[in-house]
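Lab notebook, entry 329. We have the chain sequence and a SMILES string for fe (ii) ion, and the next step in the workflow is to get a structural model of the bound complex before anyone spends time on docking refinements. Request logged below.

Task: model protein plus fe (ii) ion, output structure tokens.
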Amino acid sequence: MMYASRKSVMKHLEPFIDEQWPKLLRSTDELWQPSDFLPDFTSESAAEDLAELQEEASRLPEDILNSLVGDTITEEALPTYAQWLASMKGVGQAGCTNGTPWAAWNRAWCAEENRHGDVLAAYLRLCGRVKMREVELTIHHLVYDGMDIQTGSDPYRFFVYTSFQELATLRSHRNIGRMAESAGAPRLAKMNRVIAGDEGWHAKAYRLFIQKFLEIDTDEAVLAIADMFRKKIIMPAMNLRESGGEKGIAFKRFEVLAQRAGVYTSRDYIEIMEFLIDAWELAQLTGLSTEAQDARDFVCALPGRYRKALERRRDTATDETPIRFNWMA
Ligand SMILES: [Fe+2]
Ligand SMILES: [Fe+2]
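Result returned:
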């Protein structure tokens, strides 16, 4: 089937999305809320619960705590992501109840995501190891500075980005959860497990959107995937800065930290790429234009190239210098 534009493909998929999006997410009644993991200050056991939370947080190594702060800040910049999604061709106003099914997805997705920053920020506030005003300033800067994830207003490119990004956050939350578990912080471990679970659901939905584009607009979908992978999927907190710092400098240090702590590494990046190539069955696609075929071959060869480059770098000694951020107490 030939479509004139992204807009018409998005329009064509509206009935499908309308039917699918409620199944791609869970009903509000089934979902967790931040309070499920935090002390209840109306209960008699509040002081005890808080003491227990602080006790477990005192066991977290600094690199892990810093990674957790970085992830929290990233989650808290949700207004930027919701706006970005709303600006894609064919999506439309997120706040409008009678908008497109794509906009309905945006709202439902946002409602789920909104809990991530909330629960993490509350944990950090209560744990007593973090200067929250510094964290808040950084969130403020990040929302203010925005981002450019190089998708333009193309929904194909954007959903390639989100397919990747949700899996990246899944890994980051899951890894911090595991590290919290072994450090003796089960409350944080559980929180991170459920957040990672949400990211997994979202990733599945975004993968499905790309799957549909591949079915009905194959060449263009392949070209969008290749374009995003060629540019590299950069995390949405790319402009992260500390108070008094330059835009993006703190992000560079945060990347080094996440790599060193094993929270989100080059290996994760390669594995996500491989997983998506597999899930979208790119190698099996037939009937492509020459341009799309070249793009597909480029994408399929990319993980192997990255792996080779990674092996060459392996003997570089890891720098153990402490990476300090303004927000550490
Ligand atoms: Fe999230
Ligand atoms: Fe997410």
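Notes for the group: The chain has a mean pLDDT of 94. Worth checking against the assay data. The longest helix spans residues 186-216.
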